[in-house]
């Protein structure tokens, strides 16, 4: 309860788009959570029960810390079909090679 989540896929029937964030306010069980969505002033726009496969946690109330990007990425990739997950892995390898051809990568090898 209190975690901040980010929707990872469009959910047209609930008028939710990927990327929108909300707060977990209740756990219904069976991987369903009640999420409160607010505007920039903190006014409640809507409540929606979402299955955990529709979102990733980006901030943990228990630790009062943002979830590291690598952990968010891992959670997102874990929900993808194997073919799509392989594409993400291949793209990450490509980025790693591109990034490690810069002087900044010298510190990684050391």
Written description of the protein model:
- It is a single chain.
- With 110 residues, the chain is of the alpha+beta class.
- It has 3 helices and 6 strands; from the N terminus they run E-E-E-E-E-E-H-H-H.
- The protein has helices spanning 69-78, 82-99, 106-109; strands at 4-7, 21-29, 32-38, 44-51, 55-60, 65-66.
- Strands 4-3-2-1-5-6 form a 6-stranded antiparallel beta sheet.
- Strand 2 (21-29) and strand 3 (32-38) form a beta hairpin.
- The longest helix has 18 residues, at 82-99.
- It is elongated.
- It starts with a strand and ends with a helix.
- The mean pLDDT is 91.
Q: What structural class results from the helix and strand content?
A: alpha+beta
Envelope shape: elongated
Q: Which segments are poorly predicted (pLDDT under 50) over 5 or more consecutive residues?
A: none
Work out the helicity level. Answer: 25-40%
Largest sheet: 6 strands, antiparallel
Biggest sheet: strands side by side, in what order?
Answer: 4-3-2-1-5-6
Rg: 17 Å
Number of helices: 3
Order of helices and strands: EEEEEEHHH
Overall number of strands: 6
N- and C-termini, Cα separation: 42 Å
Mean pLDDT: 91
């Amino acid at each position: 309860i209190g975690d901040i989540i980010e929707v990872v896929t469009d959910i047209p029937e609930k008028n939710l788009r990927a990327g929108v964030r909300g707060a977990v306010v209740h756990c219904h069980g069976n991987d369903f959570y009640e999420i409160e969505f607010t505007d920039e002033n903190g006014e409640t726009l809507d409540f929606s029960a979402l299955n955990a496969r529709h979102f990733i946690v980006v901030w943990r109330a228990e630790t009062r810390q943002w979830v590291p990007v690598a952990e968010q990425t891992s959670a997102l990739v874990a929900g993808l079909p194997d073919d799509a997950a392989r594409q993400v892995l291949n793209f990450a390898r490509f980025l790693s090679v591109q990034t490690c051809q810069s002087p900044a990568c010298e510190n990684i090898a050391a």
